[in-house]
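Z., the sequence and structure:
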Amino acid sequence: MEKRTIEIAVISDLHLGTYGCHAQEIVNYLQSITPQILILNGDIIDGWQFNKRYFPASHMQVIKEIMTLMNNGTRIIYITGNHDEMLRRYCDLQIGNFQLTD
């Protein structure tokens, strides 16, 4: 499949780890693009409703697709959302192509 090259993609409120997440649609979208920058605009993994017993393979595949983009040169900027308070203590972390900010 030929991927669309785009400057910036923004995805928000995926709520991985919850029953309402549309993980396969997200995987399909991420596999269809090659962005220079991917902005994860909060609540990617739902910190409020996260259930260790419910994290299916399709949800893990979303994370794998994001990591693949990052490893292939896409800059990933994760902006914390209201369900991300557990991540805020790490704000302003930057590792390679990954940046976490509040």
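The helical segments are 23-31, 57-71. The chain has a mean pLDDT of 91.

Let me know what you think.
H.
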